Amino acid sequence: MTAIEAAPAATPPLSRPSWAPSSVLTQVAVLTGRSLRALYRDPRLVVLSLIQPLVLLILFGQVFSAIALVPGFPPGLDYIDFILPALLVTTGLTAGLQSGVAVTTELRNGLIPRFRSMPIRTGSVLAARSFADVLRSASELTAMAVLAALLFGFSPPGGVLGVVGALLVAAVLCWSLGWVFMWFASWLRSPEILQTVGSLATFPLMFASNAFVPVENLPGWLRAFATVNPLSYAISAARGLATGTADLAMLGAAVGSCLVIALIAIPCALRSFRRN
User: Fold this and answer.
1) Cα four-point dihedral sign 137, 139, 142, 147
2) Which of 3, 20, 148, 196 has the most CB atoms around its CB within 10 Å?
3) What pTM did the predictor assign?
């Protein structure tokens, strides 16, 4: 053979497709949508979420309406206009508890462990759960306000804008307390225990506040607790917006207390969640 055969050219390595993980905002948006779809696919939950506001309005708005005749009650204010902003806030409180219950359920059924096998940030799972429950709570609160206006004559002096402001205050409270209950959920890991702990926490906060009667009509020791109760700040702000008597100090106290709660609960919830 007179010529040396040329060696075949080396085959270039196959190029792998470049892949980058999704952003945190994308992860939160996708997981929030998943939680909302899972919720509203069950018609029973949708129906119950509409019945619950009606039951609360009948129980508190009608059964306790005689409180409007008690000395010290704000003059010229119907009891439904007094109680509904408080019901919006207390409903936001119970919606925050549901955030924790949902986390314990997903920890138990193996959904969150599957999320951990994916390139998903830990905080995205909890943030998505928080936003989904706030949106769900907002629909329930809106239904409550509409039912109160149609069936019980709810027409506060603050008008529609005041009611919208009250809804926003309740949503902020739901968001901040949702992180507290998710923190407890990551620690307790049991929906039954969390429901018990949540009831022990929510009932004193609800009834030892200015939700159902003016603070001035409470006994001295209970009045002292209601004065420092963070729920009272949110109720005062929501009621002030609905009745057109809110000021910046009232709104600042409500939003500030919710932010303080969130700043404490968020890192604790994330740390406890990562350990599970």
Assistant:
1) negative
2) 148
3) 0.83
